[in-house]
Structure formats: C-alpha cells, structure tokens
Amino acid sequence: MHVNTYRGAVAAADLGRTLMHEHVFVMAPELMINYPGYADWDEESVVCAAVTRLTDLKHAGIDTIVDLTVTPLGRNPPLIQRVAQACALNIVGATGIYVTNELPEYLKFRGPGLLSNEPEPLVELFVRDIEHGMADTGVRAGILKCATDRYGLTPDVERALRAVAQAHLRTGVPISTHTHAGREVGLVQQKVFAEEGVSLDRVIIGHSGDTVDLDYLQRLLDAGSYLGMDRFGFDVLVPFAERVRVVAELCRRGYADRLVLSHDAVCHHDAVPAKTMQALMPNYHMGHISADVIPALLQTGVSQEQIDQMLIGNPAQILGRCA
Fold first, then answer.
1. pLDDT (tens digit, 0 to 9) for every residue of the chain, 323 residues total?
2. What angle do CA 180, 5, 273 make, to 5 degrees?
3. Helix axes 121-131, 155-171, angle to 10 degrees
4. Of 48, 95, 87, which is closest to residue 69 (Cα–Cα)?
5. Helix (H, G, I), strand (E, B), or coil: what is residue 165?
6. Are the C-beta atoms of residues 235 and 244 closer than 8 Å to each other?
7. Among residues 197, 255, 208, 202, which one has the least CA distance to residue 231?
8. Alpha-carbon Rg of the chain, whole angstroms?
C-alpha cells in the first residue's frame, strides 16, 4: 500500500520514522494579504527556514511528518509543496477542518437544512482533496483532521466530525483529531464516529498526552483507537517527565502498538513570536523526540522495539491501510 505525500506516493513500509502530528506553517492568509509583512512574514525567508528545519530533522533520524494543518489554520499546499521539493523528508498532507465552536461564516449557512439547503459541502471538499488533490497541486491528502475542544460537542463541531467520518467512509483515509484531554472529549469523538459507522481503529485521538489520567486513556484504548502522544515539548500543560511516564506505563500495559509520538510543533506560526515561544517552551520543536524523548523512554525500560513500533510500525499501519 502506498501513502500520498507532497513528494509523491511512498510505500507505507518506506515511510520510516514518522511524526504523526506536526505543522509546517500556521498562519492567517487574510492578514498576510491585507497587511504585508505581518508577524515578520516573508515567503522566501520562511520557506528557507522551514527547509532548513526539516532537513535538520531528517539528519536527526526522522523520515516523514504528517502536516495536520487544515482550514482555517492557513493550509497552503503550494507553499508546502515548495518546501517538500527542497528537502528529503516526506510530508503527508491533511484535509478536514479545525473548528472548536462555530464554523466560519463561509461554511456556516451552506448545507442540508440550512439557508442553501444543499448536500453537505464539507464532505465533498474533503473527498476532493483526497481523490483529486489539494488546491490544484495534484497532491492528495493522506489523512483527515477534525477537532473538539473545551466547548465540547457544539452543533457545528458535531457537523464537522460527522462530515469527516463520512469522508473517511468514502475514501478509507484515516482520521486524526485535536482534543481537550482534560475535558475527556476523545470519548465524545469516539461516540460520534461509531454512530457514523467508523471503525475506531482507524482513528487517532490526538493530544492524549495532555493528561496523566490513565483511566481515561485506557477507556479510549479499549474502544479501539490509537492515541496521539503528540505534544512532547508542550511542557506548560504536562511536564516532560510526566509525559514520558505515561507513555512508558502504557507500553508496560501492552499498548505500544496503539501509540504514536509527535510534538504538534510548527516551523512558522504567526500567532506567537518565535522568540516568545522559545523562551516559554524551549523543548517545543520537532527535534525534541529524537534528542530527548527516546533516550528518556529507554531509561524507563521502554524497549527499542516498542519505540520503533510507535514511530515506524504504527504510522505505516495507520497511513497505509485504506479500508
């Protein structure tokens, strides 16, 4: 089975060490257009900086990242394609939508039972990205993304989740989510997906490393989903040692075959100045797992085989299987 990436189709077995939740660019195109130079945006310099960072990441032993930037986080497939062509690292693109409360105005009133009373446009948009390519680049999305946060299952969030589920059922592409682990919304997501007929072993419940509540994580695992332990470096929420301890304990319980590792880090983010982010969370970068997390996990007794399962085996299984 092959996986679609910005550098073309890659055999799932050749993806190598894969970070399953990262971002190349998170930005506001409307601000870029109307206020040139906003947040130090200069296309050439940020592209060069991203190429350098991802090249360094490849040298650190990472072969593939999954870019989970979707609407309205500023997904820009042509720009990411430029980055991908200039570095030797695979980038898997995503479709879907990041909505934690209300849909953007340009989508809020279009759909069944709404002002336009048309078929759900979200499903068609997602399927087009998967089957025909994103933004006329010809690059096909390899994963679906949706979100549930502190607002819970609002009507628009539920609509987004169900649209992602329906696009999954039509294409077989896996689902990865954003969650608020403290509110246990991963369980809500699983309920909605199951109602839509999604097999929960095709779903990654994201940001599950943002909690030390092992009972909650056990419930998600027992329902069949993968867990995204994907915010290493985001130490202001859960300290590094606790994130390592939780992963090690889940491995001890036999769940290494259902965990994926990542950072949710960004090459360029226009919401927070890079220097501010560096001062607040110095480990919040894509090299943290290679440099610090893997050695720490090995010290706790996690085996190299289990680490390879989380970084190589599980991503290949998730991305390569289109059921």
1. 899 999 999 999 999 999 999 999 999 988 888 998 888 788 999 999 999 999 999 999 999 999 999 999 999 999 999 999 999 999 999 999 999 999 998 888 887 877 777 788 999 999 999 999 999 999 999 999 999 999 999 999 999 999 999 999 999 999 999 999 999 999 999 999 999 999 999 999 999 999 999 999 999 999 999 999 999 999 999 999 999 999 999 999 999 999 999 999 999 998 888 888 888 899 999 999 999 999 999 999 999 999 999 999 999 999 998 64
2. 50
3. 40
4. 95
5. helix
6. no
7. 208
8. 19
Strands 2-5 and 8-11: antiparallel
Degrees to nearest 5, angle at CA 204 with 203 and 206: 140
- Domain boundaries defined on the chain: 2-320
Chain centroid offset of residue 135 CA: 19
Q: In one letter, which amino acid is 252?
A: R
Q: What is the DSSP letter of 151?
A: T
Report the candidate in 148, 150, 182, 151 with the shortest Cα–Cα distance to residue 162. Answer: 148
Annotated binding site for Zn(2+): 21, 23, 145, 178, 207, 264
Fold (CATH) for 2-320: TIM Barrel (3.20.20)
Cβ-based neighbour number of residue 3 at 10 Å? 27
The one-letter code for the residue type at 294 is I
Is the dihedral angle over the CA atoms 213, 217, 220, 223 positive or is it negative? negative
CB 92 within 8 A of CB 145: no
Query: What element of type H or E holds 178?
Result: strand 175-178
Residues contributing to the annotated binding site: 21, 23, 145, 178, 207, 264
